[in-house]
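step: validate -> pass
step: tokenize input -> pass
step: predict -> running
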Amino acid sequence: MRGLRLQAVEARLGEIAPGAARFADQWPTGQDVEILPLVRQALAEIGVHYLFSEDASTLLPFAARLFLAREALVRPSRWVWPCWVPTPARRFRTRQQVAFINALRPIVRRRRSSGRLGDDMLGQMLGPSSRHGPLPEEAVLDTLPGITVATFETPSRAAGWILLHLARHPHAADRVAAEAALLPADPAVTTSTHLDSLQYTQALVREVLRLYPPSWLLTRRVRRRTQLADYTIDAGSTVLVCPYTAHRDAREHSDPDRFQPERWLDDSGSPAKPGAFLSFGTGPHGCEGAALAMAMLTLLTAQTARCYRLSEPSAPESGYQVTTLEGLTPVGLRLRATSRS
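step: predict -> pass
step: emit ->
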């Protein structure tokens, strides 16, 4: 989609960066805080604003409830119901999907009737294509709920792992803070030049995504009979691809279990070559929102390290639990922020 391409994201960094700065400014200091809900709220505000600009405040509550409905749908259950059974979780998800669409529909009609489509993601979708003309209203409405939740659902899981690594690797966090100190005092004037200057920060984000890819298991349908190593895979088969194990393959990544952001700064390395780094998928099924996700995560990481030193609770047990439902997540992650000033 045009609105999610790298150039489109770079053109709107001045709208993304203030949300990352607000997240850092609002972090309660001097106490152990469960961080994922705060991260999710911040990224939801950034993502929904990116999609809908001035209409974001109307749609944000519906997006939050739709996220909760999707989470409820994947919780473990004693029973495995066929997909056609209207379980309570499925009915709840359907209700929230309908509520989101009903809130979005008058916005779509107002923009089209006024001719002021907007420069945001919704405006891009409402604009006519040179080949196919304007998208039908129902196509827009059916597409956007999933995109909306995707802007903050998986990135919030990734941000949890990133913030945990800032706490566990203070020297790396200091290096991020040094880069972030050069960002403009007014985040609204952030440009692609500023983002490009955060080279180590981007390397740290990619290294965490390599070690803890939120989308840790992918599925692909085989289109034609294929030979894979010593196996013959028939057309129509489903193949499971595990980025978590692929990213820890010593044939592709030296010392693969070690946290080493510098590997992304070495031109002779190969961590990002096709098929070796799968956090955003690859090929025609790669994540269309990769540029937006990287911008959000990089700026949130930089602004947080710029303001705070992070630490884990001083307790013998781990401050979080790992779950793999829908994504690799540090559930219950608690961190403490101490002001760098």
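step: describe -> Residues 2-212+259-268+289-339 form a domain with the Cytochrome p450 fold (CATH 1.10.630.10).
step: cleanup -> pass
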